[in-house]
């Protein structure tokens, strides 16, 4: 839209027949997304000094990204050691020992291109890539939710792009988190993967809403690299894919099987099982964990309400039709 067209549109009434004009709805959403992304960029820049250090001064281990980078390095040089805790002979030196890699093994394939650059530039590149996913996430959310109430759309965007909600163990309301999210601060500092998994979940949901079950299933399968969020999102996926569940399930299963075929490599499966037995694949819930968690909860709530309203409307319509057909003829 040109500047003249924008100014002309601002002179038009905001409401038409009691409803928000679609042009103003889009404008309000666009301005809200811009504001949220600006706030998140501020968080990103404030986290950069710690991010670029590669490790927190008081910690024994490297940042979380170090475990991803090391897993990719081992995938190339020593696959059987992907799940080994601590440093291994021949590892790329991070300065400090890496934390233990706990994702499903195919996640390490995503990290392979980052091995072309050193650890710290790779960490910054990974975070920058995830930040660039945020406007794409916003667009996917808008296209998936554009038929629902604008307050619901803005609420979901706020939760996903900034994560201002309280979380355990305190569950205290901190007004500062409404514009300076603690969840995103640690997401960027640690070089975590929570924006990436959120993108995969929302992209799968978007394609399910647009009746593309194979692509939705493929993206859902990829989102299972952290099994917690794949499982949390199952109700959302089942509702969104209810009309084409078989196709969706086939691609989800096929993606998981193909992605984890690397477990057949000699020694890798036993290393994976040892990791699960000793420390468990379930990890603690840190500040950044709540980014995909609340995103999934918000989308499931919205989609569930839309689904139940549709069922209720269908029952009312059928009841009205039945009453009309059963009415005695004059």
Task: List the quaternary state of the chains.
Answer: single chain
Strand content: under 5%
Q: What string, H for helix and E for strand, traces the elements in order?
A: HEEHHHHHHHHHHHHH
Task: Report the count of strand segments.
Answer: 2
Helix percentage: 55-70%
Task: Note the gap between the termini.
Answer: 58 Å
> What gyration radius follows from the Cα positions, in whole Å?
23 Å
Structural class: mainly alpha
Tell me, briefly, the overall form.
Answer: globular
Lateral arrangement of strands in the main beta sheet = 1-2
Number of domains: 1
Low-confidence region ranges? 13-18
Main sheet: strands, sense, barrel: 2 strands, antiparallel
Count of helical segments? 14
Overall pLDDT score: 84
Architecture overview:
The structure is a single chain. This protein is 64% helix and 1% strand. The chain is mainly alpha-helical and 330 residues long. The protein has one domain (31-326). Strands 1-2 form a two-stranded antiparallel sheet. β1 (15-16) and β2 form a beta hairpin.
Brief account:
With 330 residues, the chain is mainly α. The chain has helices spanning 3-10, 22-53, 64-77, 107-111, 119-145, 150-162, 182-190, 194-209, 213-223, 227-232, 234-240, 245-259, 268-279, 290-326, and strands spanning 15-16, 19-20.
């Amino acid at each position: 839209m040109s500047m003249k067209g924008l100014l002309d549109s601002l002179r038009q009434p905001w409401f038409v027949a009691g409803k928000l004009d679609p042009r103003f709805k889009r404008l309000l959403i666009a301005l809200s997304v811009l504001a949220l992304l600006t706030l998140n960029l501020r968080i990103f820049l404030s986290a950069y000094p710690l991010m670029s250090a590669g490790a927190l001064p008081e910690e024994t281990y490297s940042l979380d990204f170090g475990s991803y980078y090391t897993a990719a390095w081992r995938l190339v040089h020593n696959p059987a050691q992907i799940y080994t805790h601590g440093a291994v002979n021949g590892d790329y030196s991070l300065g400090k020992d890496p934390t233990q890699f706990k994702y499903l093994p195919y996640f390490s394939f995503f990290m392979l291109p980052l091995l072309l650059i050193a650890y710290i530039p790779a960490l910054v590149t990974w975070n920058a890539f995830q930040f660039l996913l945020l406007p794409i996430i916003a667009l996917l959310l808008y296209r998936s939710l554009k038929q629902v109430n604008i307050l619901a759309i803005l609420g979901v965007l706020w939760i996903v792009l900034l994560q201002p909600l309280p979380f355990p163990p305190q569950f205290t309301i901190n007004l500062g988190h409404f514009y300076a999210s603690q969840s995103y601060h640690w997401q960027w500092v640690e070089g975590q993967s929570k924006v990436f998994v959120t993108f995969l979940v929302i992209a799968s949901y978007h394609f399910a809403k647009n009746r593309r079950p194979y692509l939705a299933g493929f993206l859902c399968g990829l989102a299972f690299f952290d099994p917690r969020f794949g499982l949390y999102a199952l109700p959302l996926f089942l509702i969104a894919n209810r009309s084409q569940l078989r196709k969706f399930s086939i691609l989800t299963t096929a993606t998981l099987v193909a992605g984890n075929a690397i477990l057949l490599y000699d020694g890798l499966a036993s290393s994976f099982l040892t990791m699960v037995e000793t420390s468990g694949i379930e990890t603690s819930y840190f500040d950044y964990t709540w980014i995909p968690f609340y995103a999934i909860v918000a989308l499931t709530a919205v989609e569930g309400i839309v689904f139940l309203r549709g069922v209720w409307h269908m029952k009312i319509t059928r009841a009205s039709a039945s009453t009309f057909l059963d009415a005695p003829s004059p």
